[in-house]
Write a structure and sequence with these properties.
Blueprint: E1 2-6, H1 8-17, H2 22-29, H3 33-41, H4 48-58, H5 62-65, E2 66-70
Antiparallel strand pairs: 1-2
């Protein structure tokens, strides 16, 4: 089974390229700004739902902000 892991550095780079503050993206994605900071720093991994909300908030596909990660069966 393959799942996706967030690339927090990519999220931050895209957010900054779009001229968005952390608060702006967190509002778009419906998440706490502190949680977004942890995601961007790589100290947390989001659920599939949050990953999708971040992608929508940034206007990109999930594949742009994440990478495949094998999950042990």
């Amino acid at each position: 089974m393959t799942t996706r892991r967030l690339n927090g550095a990519t999220v931050r780079a895209l957010r900054e390229a779009l001229g968005l503050r952390s608060r702006d993206l967190s509002e778009r994605a419906g998440i706490d700004p502190g949680y977004l900071t942890k995601l961007e720093n790589g100290s947390r991994q989001p659920s599939a739902l949050i990953l999708r909300k971040l992608a929508i908030g940034l206007g990109v596909s999930i594949e742009v902000i994440s990478y495949p990660a094998e999950v042990a069966a």
